[in-house]
Amino acid sequence: MFFELGARERGGEKFADIILQRCVSYFRNLHLTALLEKRGYTVVNPYKVTQLCGNKLLTTLALTKAKIPTPKTYVAFTKESALEALDKMGYPAMLKPVVGSWGRLIIPLKDRETAGAVLEEREYMFPLYQVYYLQEMVKRPPRDIRVFVIGDEAVTGIYRYSFLDIKTNIARGGKAEPCRITPELQELSLKAAEAVGSGILGVDMMETDEGIVVHEINHTIEFQATATVTKVNIPKYIVGYLLRKARK
Ligand SMILES: Nc1ncnc2c1ncn2[C@@H]1O[C@H](COP(=O)(O)OP(=O)(O)O)[C@@H](O)[C@H]1O
Ligand SMILES: [Mg+2]
How far is CA 87 from the centre of its chain? Predict the structure, then answer.
């Protein structure tokens, strides 16, 4: 396919009532969604939700604005200021790219020496990787929690375990187990989904001594492991949500 920007759609015929965006490439997803919305289509998730969720800095801003507990985070734009921020926050800490998934290029920084070396390498990388998103290392069990929120329903949840890697992503070998959605998890995940504009979302949380914190909201949810271990028919909820939205 190709698109002529600014051109009017011929005949005004629509090929769909609603579009489910499933592209796992953030940038293709976002740009294609922008084009489709401009042509008058309702896309799930919408551009503004995808834009927020696909960027950890924008997500943190949305979460803190909605007063949702989230790990302490600093952002810096030079190696020197990043090291200063890390001195203030303390080690160990996590360095994350603002755009990225599957745990890629997320580095636990154990001490100042490691941080300096990693930040020096980043100076040779694409400018996106020189936006330094630095987060406190949360003391948590070797697992985190993902709640699948579809519209205004928290439909199911999993624990993701990883004993060898700090990153629990299923794509890196993390294991899924069903997680009962307690009233606390329900309230927090729905509030977090609302903070980024709602849609079909995966709200990631960690358990700390001071309660649960939300660290990420995923906008193109993968659910093979979850559907297997929870036996919840996630596609059925997705289709139900799309039908309700399309009828509006
Ligand atoms: N601040 C943190 N402290 C401890 N573990 C973290 C922290 N942030 C993320 N993790 C772990 O690292 C993994 C990937 O982090 P996440 O922010 O979800 O990035 P991605 O978008 O790549 O999945 C998650 O499994 C999460 O449990
Ligand atoms: Mg994640």
Answer: 27
Is the same domain home to 147 and 182?
yes
User: CB of 219 closer than 6 A to ligand 1?
Assistant: no
Q: Which of 136, 170, 186 is the last residue of a domain?
A: 136
Q: CB of 144 closer than 6 A to ligand 1? A: yes
**148 and 233, same structural domain?**
yes
| Domain count along the chain | 2
- With the most atoms of ligand 1 within 8 angstroms of its CB, the residue from 133, 216, 218 to mutate is 216
pTM greater than 0.70 (yes/no) = yes
Q: Is 11 left (phi over 0), alpha (psi -120 to 50) or beta?
A: left
Per-10-residue mean pLDDT, the chain, length 248:
78 85 96 94 97 98 98 98 98 97 95 98 96 97 97 98 89 93 98 98 97 97 94 97 94
Question: Distance (Å, rounded) from C-alpha 156 to C-alpha 158?
Answer: 7
Ligand 2 mean position to 211 CA, how many Å?
A: 19
pLDDT of residue 146: 98
Tell me if 101 sits within 8 A of 218, measured CB to CB.
Answer: yes
Domain shared by 168 and 195, yes or no: yes
